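User: Reviewer 2 asked us to show a designed sequence for the structure in our supplementary figure. I'm pasting the structure tokens here. Could you produce the per-position amino acids so we can include them in the response letter?
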């Protein structure tokens, strides 16, 4: 007899059922991108407004990204403890509240604090949204769905760039406040819409809430037109451990105990690839302005980088089920790094530099969607949001402090080509590690990873439902 998990993962895809989850979850992810991209546009404006040093300008991105790092851990843990739905809504509400307050900051110190708190709320969007969407998606197209989720990222970053570019005629002393306020109303509207999303039936089944799980599964079966079959609900038999502050530590230990090889892979891929992308995104307007571009051209060039990423994400959704997760990440990640190095080397020829910037924007968005899909599939349901959340959090911490080093040490001392070359070398190391220590997840059911002879040591397999490392 089938389990409730299997029924959900074998349902046909319907836009009015799973597609609704995909769109609403993706819109939250769009705000994550909008907010991160906003740091790059705010940095030169705030630097002038408050007469900031280069190191202080780096704090604009650092405060926000470190808040996201903390939020990714906290909300990933909460989503595994109290459910996806509640965390799904609260993340955006906290983000919207502190974004409004940030727009009225009286000084730089208060601004950084409020950006940290806004990031704390928004940092939960990626782990919570990916956990929820993955658990509603049919197994056969889950890779495409999760990869396509990332299309919301370049859309959000591009919308941010378009808004920032259109606001260029406004006095810079107030323009940064308008940039913050512009995204708050749609975020609040999305928070209201998210209240109608059902809880993940796979999560409900795992925590023993059988009646609620059956209600959601039966409703999905009816709405998708799938044949009605008998199924059983199989709850998680192991203790879920303590709550409160100890819950985060417990989940962290669970993530590493499950498979040190997989967790090391997830963390290194997240840190290296996101460091490459966020370094470009956070500093690109400043880099282009330093190379003689006008403010409008610098903002438009950054928008070009994010805009072509939309095509990259759509392409990744086509490639992920053909070549598998590991091949797409392993090839596109290093190529994106090489493109960014060539951009830095060609900055004195503006037309050629913009071509390489566009190539980077396209290729990096082949990598990131598949990375998110891959990591969300590597962990079982009970630690999926936590596993993704910790990997995301580690990358947010690294990319949060990177702007300080980038602006004050690496860019002025090492130069852009060498700086981007060092990060690219880290990406290469991470994908080589992945090739040995992590399995391919293409066409596998969630929670049923089996031993992969190509995955090397530290890869889990399941025997009789028990995870073995």
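Assistant: Here is a per-position design you can include in the supplement:
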């Amino acid at each position: 007899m089938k389990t409730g998990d299997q029924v959900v993962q074998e349902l046909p895809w319907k836009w009015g059922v799973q597609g609704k989850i995909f769109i609403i979850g993706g819109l939250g992810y769009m705000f994550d991108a909008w907010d991160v991209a906003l740091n790059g546009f705010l940095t030169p404006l705030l630097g002038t407004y408050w007469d900031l040093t280069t190191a202080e300008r780096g704090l604009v991105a650092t405060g926000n990204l470190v808040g996201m790092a903390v939020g990714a851990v906290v909300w990933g843990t909460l989503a595994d403890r109290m459910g996806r739905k509640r965390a799904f809504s609260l993340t955006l509400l906290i983000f919207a509240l502190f974004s409004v307050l940030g727009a009225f900051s009286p000084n730089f110190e208060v601004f950084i604090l409020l950006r940290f708190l806004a990031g704390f709320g928004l940092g939960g969007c990626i782990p919570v949204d990916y956990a929820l969407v993955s658990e509603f998606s049919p197994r056969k197209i889950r890779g495409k769905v999760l990869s396509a989720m990332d299309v919301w990222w370049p859309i959000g970053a591009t919308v941010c760039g378009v808004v920032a570019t259109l606001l260029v005629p406004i006095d810079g002393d107030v323009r940064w406040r308008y940039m913050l306020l512009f995204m708050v109303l749609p975020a609040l509207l999305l928070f209201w819409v998210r209240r109608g999303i059902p809880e993940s039936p796979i999560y409900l089944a795992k925590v023993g809430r059988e009646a609620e799980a059956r209600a959601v599964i039966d409703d999905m079966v009816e709405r998708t037109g799938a044949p009605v079959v008998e199924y059983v609900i199989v709850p998680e038999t192991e203790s879920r451990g303590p709550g409160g502050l100890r819950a985060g530590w417990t989940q962290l230990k669970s993530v590493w105990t499950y498979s040190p090889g997989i967790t090391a892979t997830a963390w290194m891929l997240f840190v290296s690839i996101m460091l490459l992308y966020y370094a470009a995104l956070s500093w690109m307007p400043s880099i282009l302005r330093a190379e003689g571009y006008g403010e409008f051209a610098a903002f438009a060039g950054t928008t070009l980088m994010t805009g072509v990423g939309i095509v990259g994400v759509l392409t990744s959704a086509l490639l992920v089920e053909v070549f598998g997760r590991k091949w797409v990440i392993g090839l596109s990640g290093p190529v994106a790094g090489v493109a960014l190095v060539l951009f830095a080397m060609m900055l004195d020829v503006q037309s050629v530099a913009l071509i390489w910037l566009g190539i980077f924007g396209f290729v990096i968005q082949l990598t990131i969607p598949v990375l998110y899909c891959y990591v969300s599939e590597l962990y079982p349901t009970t630690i999926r949001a936590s596993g993704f959340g910790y990997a995301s959090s580690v990358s947010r911490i690294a990319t949060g402090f990177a702007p300080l080093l980038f602006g004050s040490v690496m860019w002025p001392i090492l130069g852009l080509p060498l700086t981007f070359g060092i990060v690219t070398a880290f990406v290469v190391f991470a994908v080589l590690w992945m090739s040995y220590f992590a399995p391919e997840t293409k066409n596998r059911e969630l929670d049923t990873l089996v031993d992969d002879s190509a995955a090397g040591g530290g890869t889990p397999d399941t025997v009789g439902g028990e995870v073995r490392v």
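For the response letter, you might also mention the following. The two ends are 28 Å apart (CA to CA). The longest strand covers residues 461-463.
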